[in-house]
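Reminder to self: tokens first, then the designed residues, so the page reads top to bottom the way the pipeline ran.
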């Protein structure tokens, strides 16, 4: 019997509308991200999070994105989330204090040592790797040099940064990530997803997962 090709999981981030959630769920997306960083164009309030989270069915993961947030905000959001995503300079102890599963985003500075960071954040469920731009914690819409990702890393890799329906197939073939995370690459405008781009992205991921 042949070994099945690993399935790359998909996270759509920056959801702000019920219709986009319904479409993502219909496409079989694995996780939906909600931005709780006020400075983002895709930020939502806790009340909006509660409303949108109620639209997400079982077995689809609800992820809250935070950037050096006040613990009180995270605690307010926690009842509506399944997973926490930290995009700031949070040390491991701060990420782990909420008794929830969490992932740590790392911006790919020139001097980042992914093996060292994987050991430092060994309690994380995965590491999310994003492009680096000074002063911007994520959502740059830019890619980085994927060859910088070690083939054998101690944590699962979630690939982010500038992914689109046009480049996701190449990204999966080169990196073979556990999951991919897309926001701007499937949008009509910040916070509003484009249904055709959403479908195209999912289709390209599925195609890349087929044996070559």
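Designed residues (212 positions):
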């Amino acid at each position: 019997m042949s070994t099945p090709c690993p399935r790359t999981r998909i996270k759509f981030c920056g959801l702000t509308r019920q219709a986009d959630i319904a479409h993502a769920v219909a496409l079989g997306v694995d996780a939906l991200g909600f931005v709780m960083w006020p400075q983002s164009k895709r930020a939502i309030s806790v009340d909006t999070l509660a409303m949108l989270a109620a639209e997400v069915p079982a077995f689809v993961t609800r992820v809250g994105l935070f950037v050096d947030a006040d613990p009180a905000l995270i605690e307010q959001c926690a009842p509506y989330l399944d997973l926490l995503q930290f995009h700031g300079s949070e040390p491991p102890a701060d990420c782990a204090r909420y008794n929830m599963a969490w992932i740590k985003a790392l911006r790919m500075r020139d001097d980042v040592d992914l093996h060292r960071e994987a050991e430092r954040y060994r309690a994380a469920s995965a590491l999310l790797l994003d492009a680096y731009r000074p002063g911007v914690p994520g959502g740059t819409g830019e890619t980085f040099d994927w060859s910088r990702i070690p083939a054998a890393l101690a944590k699962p890799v979630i690939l982010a940064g500038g992914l689109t329906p046009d480049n996701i197939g190449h990204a999966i073939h080169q990196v073979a990530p556990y999951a991919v995370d897309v926001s701007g690459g499937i949008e009509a405008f910040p916070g509003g997803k484009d249904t055709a781009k959403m479908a195209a992205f999912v289709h390209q991921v599925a195609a890349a997962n087929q044996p070559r």
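The helical segments are 18-27, 46-53, 71-77, 92-96, 114-120, 168-175, 195-208.
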